[in-house]
Amino acid sequence: MASKQKNMTPKQQNYQQLQQKHELKRPVLKNCLKAFLVGGLICAIGQAVSYFYIYFFNFTEKTAGNPTVATMVFFSMLLTGFGVYDRLGQFAGAGSAVPVTGFGNAVISAAIEHRTEGFVLGVGGNMFKLAGSVILFGVFSAFVVALIKTLLAQWGVL
Amino acid sequence: MNSMKRLMLLACILLLASCSQNQKVKDSQLALIKTTNPSPITTERNKSTNEVEEIKKDVSSFPEIYDVAVVKGKKDVLVAYKVTHMQRFRMDAIEKNLNKMLEERYPKEKFTVSSDYKIFLEVVRLNEQMKARKLSHEKAEKRLQQLIKMTEDMT
After folding, report:
1. Residue A39 placed within a domain
2. Cβ contact A54–B118 (<8 Å)
3. HSE-up of B29 (CA within 13 Å, CB side)?
4. B81: helix, strand or coil
5. In this complex, which of B117, B154, B155 lies closest to A61 when CB atoms are compared?
6. Given a cut of 70, is residue A3 above it in pLDDT?
7. Cβ of B31 under 8 Å from any chain A Cβ?
8. B154 CB near a chain A CB, below 8 Å?
9. Are B151 and B114 in contact (CB under 8 A)?
10. Does residue A83 fall inside a structural domain?
């Protein structure tokens, strides 16, 4: 960064200073609060769905996790299709992207974006453009953690 | 017009709420929110509940545990409990201690302990059905075995 500034002409540096003066400050605290509230709300809905499965179906607290995740992803996929989740994402930022609902949003928004390129090469080829990395690193980190746990169990630590 | 709609909505909500006024709420419906403290039960016919009550008392003596449900079957005893909020981080340790204490005090019994909310709920439901005499002892035993199997399920 410093070397970049050295290469600048005085005019460019002046412009840089002017730009810094007028640049709007990012409302970090406000963004954090928004993300916290919306993320918390999504998680509260997830908890309600989880209790729904526990109350009305044969799921225990341990096993209710899987159908809950599937339901939440499905909800976010529908909301993305209707254009609601995008607005939510604009408002809450990470609060809507970090929970598992963000995964559904990533899949469907990529599918919608490339719809015009055809079903196979467009939708099929680009659907996991964003979500692919989530799956890859999710599976890989799960593998690493399971490997560590297995080794620790073998050695009698756990 | 808008205020009229709001008034209509409020009237509907009040009407619906008033419909549910006189219905008796079962314990199992509120087991998540409140302490139900179900009485201990046994699925065996003509068997006194003294021992089960004793087990319940012993489990309740743990300061971290606040709501205990006990069912005794022919061979197994199922203990379901709730853990106070801040102590939920120590769930494994509590279960271990509880198991140890129960095995020391009642060496003849085979215990299954669970802090799972679903198991607690099902025990409360079983309790209610047995009290209402909707369930025979044989069926209750079968249900108990299903619940024990459920505690072992991992995925």
Report:
1. yes
2. yes
3. 4
4. strand
5. B117
6. no
7. no
8. yes
9. yes
10. yes
